[in-house]
């Protein structure tokens, strides 16, 4: 997209946002963030992620996030660092600007679960080594061996689930995300 086209798209999205009940959107962001926090994600990271998820473009600057969530730029920075580290958000530069824009990855949940698959592989390997080190027939070694077997099973199942999701997604009549195919 050209810079002028991007600007027009942002203006249209801003008009759409202006027509929404800002208070209801804020309540949704806080409710979903609370659900993610209860599941173990950092509180600020949950809020930033939920705000990006609720944004039509799925992208905001640090200043936009700080204003939308009524938090400090430092809080945004810490949250974005975490979200970037766990591959839920990417950082890009606004064309012709020095401002960073934070964007949800395309197919964020698919990407997130795919990244988790790599983590499970590393954990499984380390657990198997730990079981051998402790002795697989000791209580601690048996516990580690069972945990490694669980992760191995989950990975095998997760691969199939991800493949089935890709096929199922093609059958859904979902709107395309603005600016993405």
Mean pLDDT score, rounded? Answer: 85
> What structural category arises from helix and sheet content?
mainly alpha
Could you describe the largest sheet, including whether it forms a barrel?
Answer: 3 strands, antiparallel
Radius of gyration: 20 Å
**Discrete helix count:** 7
Strand composition percent: 5-15%
Number of strands: 3
In spatial order, strands of the major sheet run 1-3-2
Multimeric state: single chain
Instruction: State the share of residues found in helices, binned by percent.
Output: over 70%
Q: Between the first and last Cα atoms, what is the distance in angstroms?
A: 13 Å
Looking at the structure, what is the overall shape? elongated
Order of helices and strands: HHHEHHEEHH
Which segments are poorly predicted (pLDDT under 50) over 5 or more consecutive residues?
none
Account of the protein in words:
This protein is mainly alpha-helical and 181 residues long. It contains seven helices and three strands. A three-stranded antiparallel β-sheet has the order 1-3-2. Helix 3 crosses helix 5 and helix 6 runs antiparallel to helix 7. The mean pLDDT is 85.
